[in-house]
């Protein structure tokens, strides 16, 4: 099995594929100051197995297009939606976030947790804007420096992994420059990384290795995830996901 298939196998059994939490999804939703009974059309881009999609579906009178380029994740999401009795609110769409088949001004809200980095924060914010109605809401979480300076080991790691990583003030400036009015920002707390993401992943390592014959490739995936977890634990004072909430300026 190639590395990509192995990564899918490790992550598709998880409730979420990145740091986050139901309470934090709800907090971001509350920052939007919506009437939750109002009918809304939402796209959840890079939805994975649907952690945020299900939370939104439970709380809103919405139709949600859950977008991911991996059918395996969308299949899990559909099963979870059926079990949670919200499947009538959700339709899945297998598509690249770089080439979305949406109409101009189709959506009231675009939601994207832990996924916009795949296209780049500025490009995603810019490209996806056209799909929002005037005054529509953009909610995205993005890996963010939480301090102005940081140790060189950490800087070096992220310069290689994702050079676009920046401080919140820069990301908020991007939102303003790209025709949005920022509404709110908060930092995901530590439990979103540990209890909700890393610990369940570590608990899946043994089964994952067994399923995949304990091959060198499978062990390399576990080593790489373990390295990321160690780095997070060492440097969590300097880095987190930021949750950004903004509305599309009606006149831009
Ligand atoms: N939002 C989910 C969550 O918080 O659990 C998933 C986050 S995971 C870190 C990123 C997701 O983006 C994955 O499900 C991955 O399949 C999806 N993804 C990556 N690149 C993509 C692309 N170019 N187009 C669509 N989806 C993509």
From TrEMBL:
Determine if Membrane is one of this entry's keywords.
no
Query: Which biological process annotations from GO are given for this protein?
Result: methylation
Which Gene3D superfamilies does its entry note? Vaccinia Virus protein VP39 (3.40.50.150)
Keywords for the protein's UniProt record, in alphabetical order: Methyltransferase, Transferase
Record protein name field? Methyltransferase domain-containing protein
Q: Where is the Methyltransferase domain?
A: 42-136
Database matches in InterPro entries: Methyltransf_25 (IPR041698), SAM-dependent_MTases_sf (IPR029063)
Origin: domain of life? Bacteria
Molecular function (GO) terms listed?
methyltransferase activity
């Amino acid at each position: 099995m190639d590395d990509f298939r192995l990564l899918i196998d490790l992550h598709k059994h998880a409730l979420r594929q990145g740091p986050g939490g139901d309470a934090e999804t709800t907090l971001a939703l509350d920052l939007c100051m919506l009437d939750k009974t109002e009918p809304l059309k939402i796209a959840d881009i890079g939805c994975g197995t649907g952690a945020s999609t299900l939370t939104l579906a439970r709380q809103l009178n919405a139709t949600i297009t859950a977008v991911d380029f991996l059918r395996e994740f969308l299949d899990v999401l559909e099963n979870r939606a059926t079990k949670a009795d919200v499947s009538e609110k959700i339709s899945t769409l297998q598509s690249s976030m770089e080439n979305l088949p949406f109409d101009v001004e189709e959506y009231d809200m675009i939601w994207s947790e832990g996924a916009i980095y795949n296209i780049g924060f500025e490009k995603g914010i810019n490209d996806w804007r056209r799909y929002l109605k005037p005054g529509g809401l953009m909610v995205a979480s993005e890996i963010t420096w939480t301090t102005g300076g940081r140790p060189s080991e950490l800087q070096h790691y992220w310069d290689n992994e994702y050079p676009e990583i920046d401080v919140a003030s820069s990301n908020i400036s991007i939102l303003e420059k790209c025709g949005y009015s920022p509404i709110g920002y908060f930092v995901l707390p530590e439990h979103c990384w540990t209890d909700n993401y890393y610990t369940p992943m570590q608990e899946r390592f043994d089964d994952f290795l067994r399923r995949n014959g304990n091959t060198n490739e499978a062990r390399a995936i576990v080593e790489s995830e373990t390295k990321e977890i160690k780095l997070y634990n060492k440097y969590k004072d300097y880095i987190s996901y930021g949750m950004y909430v903004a509305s599309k300026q009606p006149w831009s």
